[in-house]
């Protein structure tokens, strides 16, 4: 009897160990640049994204996923380390992570240490030099390029005149996918899959569109009728903080964008057309890579993550691009499709749980049976098994204005509350409270000073304090890790 008892204990310990043992699941992450959730599977009935929609049919789509900062470089560092920007201590686009933080263990380092092959294709880290030596296969992000002769001539002339102006904000040449960089990135990814097919791998495919300039082959522009696009209201939310939005200089830097406060309807529609064509272009690249995965019979053992580094504004509030704490800039699409041989896989599910981009690293680690790293993010594997499971009360982001001001923001899924503080002393300068109930992503007025919403504000302030204490250290004190 006793020996049977020991046998049962030993067996259950063994099976528990098996559950957490490294299982050599492959990981393929599509990290898309500047993509907000304008996708068919997110209910946008204009955008054509059949391959991403197909992925959503085989996985869990997160309706309320958030980036930790609405700008490329810090957001990507955050994703690749599972750490919040305030833990890393870099909030600008110019500072490579390894220039100041050599101590942090990143996702590629962690997987490499666990005998994974690692691949970085296209724009993964914003600064390609970060962790460059860690990747077994590395194809750097390429500069933007133009195909049309008139645009090439224009760039050459601007260079000759030493003007800082970039080329046009969009191009629609009648060319093959490979004429622009994401088509080439797809080919590199396909080649890398063939090289890595016999090893466990972690592969990031960084697709550069729909980041500006919206350069995509004409066939993707031809999928849309410009008359279908609605021009959003240019109205800024009433009583919004004066520094809440940027002046979207990123867009105004392009040669065919006038330096004025509001773009007219025609140009708004033309830019929207370019953004949507760019989405369909990268969607097609994802389709090619997924087909290769199927052909190589790798899909059964490969986890797929589809994500974006932050959201975007397409003329809402009369503003463009990202660089803010507004809902449109921090909310991101996120789809996770487990390896096909995972028995408890949920297909075509949607989750309203509040999840953050920092959660991707621990989620992938858990699925691969690796010891979870000690980082800010937490595994959302329970949501992949049960997308309706009760989850966290809040998601957090931040955005600075210069070095002096820091906007700290929180959502509970319905309200967005933002405190603008002195970055060093934490002195409170301004508060914003926006109603985003019923999936309304555009804020109409700041009700932080409205007594009617006093209790909402109090509750949201308490939620914000969980991550951004009123007496916390300066955002520019080197954080501990
Ligand atoms: Ca970006």
List key phrases describing it.
Alkaline Phosphatase, subunit A; eight-stranded mixed β-sheet; 16 strands; binds calcium ion; alpha/beta; 481 residues; four-stranded antiparallel β-sheet
Structure, briefly:
The protein is of the alpha/beta class and 481 residues long.
Lay out the secondary structure.
Elements: H1 2-20, E1 26-32, H2 50-57, E2 60-66, H3 72-81, H4 85-88, H5 97-100, H6 107-113, E3 117-122, E4 137-139, H7 149-160, E5 170-171, H8 181-196, E6 201-207, E7 214-215, H9 218-221, H10 249-252, H11 265-295, E8 302-308, E9 313-314, E10 320-321, H12 327-330, E11 331-337, E12 349-356, H13 360-367, H14 381-385, E13 395-401, E14 405-411, E15 415-422, E16 428-435, H15 454-467
Parallel strand pairs: 1-6, 1-8, 2-12, 3-4, 3-6, 5-7
Antiparallel strand pairs: 2-11, 8-11, 9-10, 13-14, 14-15, 15-16
The chain binds calcium ion.
